[in-house]
Predict the structure.
Amino acid sequence: KGIFMLFTRDRNFYRTLFHLMIIVVFQNIIAYSINMADNLMLGMYSQSSLSGAATVNQIQFLLQQMTLAIGDTLVIIASQYWGQKKTKPIRTFTGIALATGLILGLTVFILTTLFPREILMLFTKKESYIIQGMDYLSLIRFTYPLFVLSTILMAALRSVETVSIALKISILSLIVDVSINYTLIFGKFGFPEMGTKGAAVGTLVARILELVIVVIYLIFADHKLKLFCKDFLHFTKEAFSRFFKILWPSFLSNTLWALATPIQTGILGRLSADAIAANSVSTTMFQYLKVITIGEASASAVLIGTTIGEGKGTTKVKEYSKTLQVIYLIIGSVLGFSLFFLRIPLLSLYDLTQNAYQMADQILIILSIVMVGMSYQMPTGIGIIKGGGDVKYMMYLNLISTWAIVMPLSFLGAFVWKLPVPMVVLLLNSDQLFKCIPTYLYVKKDKWIKVLV
């Protein structure tokens, strides 16, 4: 009976949560599959093409994290207004988010236009990779403002519980991107063989389609937001101030985390060729399951924000919070066991040296444990605490854990203590485990429940 006390009896909670979660998870999986398909086809074409595009994708990753901070901020504010069924303020804050995102996207576009070589040299010194990267960047830079705008518009729709259009757009984007890539990378069906540039064409066309479709949907099919009204561009100094007060902790946290990721990858990259191969294979499998956790967090943030906006009180929000945490642990355990038991059949698909195979096997065992911890602390921190309006807690937790604990320990483990590669991977991912304790203790309090509207 005790365990069942942790589950809310509100059937509407489960309907809303699983509707949002299933669609957002599938959308994330498809979006990740687009990147995987690009990498797979470029890898089949040539190693320098793959490495050149991968170098440019470091820029995309940084932009993506900054854009997610803007989108998450919009969801945090807008979902509370949606709980009150007030759409006029949502339109205003969506306008502010789009203006902020457009400035960000154009800034990255201008920098990559004026200083492409200099920027790529921050990530690699190998000339062949830089040449291929500049080819790829010459077209892919046009996608940056498009990506930012479509991501923020889909975040606005998600905040009012409209998620199916984003899934349909992602499916169409995958089909278009993969079709054009296959045709232009390898020069099929009488088209020219464009290599790296062909992959960029596919991504650019897909990004244009994404933005066009979401705008058409908002104009002709959306009946909740009615976005393009006069309120859309009705900015006030107070609204700007409120938006940026919530934005800056997430923006800083996401940016510094995005900068830390290539450094962490670089630590393993300096150990051995087998270490790079083993980590690459293991991380690919891990990332596919990670997107499920990200989907949980996105769905939870909307649900918690809407509940606070509806004015149901602290008791109901905490009741939902307890149920969500149990669901996270159940799903995390399933994902962890899945990664553990599927590791051998999945590894058999790759052509690895014996040493790389053993390393990958050990890394996947470690990541299957990490998966459980991550599946609890990430959606609890992002979906419940941050979704509940407390944006600073996650910033402090991430900055301290990444820069004060994980990075120094990983560097010492790799280069001073000379630990085996799987142990270095454990240190690199250790924050996903130890953050569970402070996150659990913090979410038990009421401090994170903040009425922002």
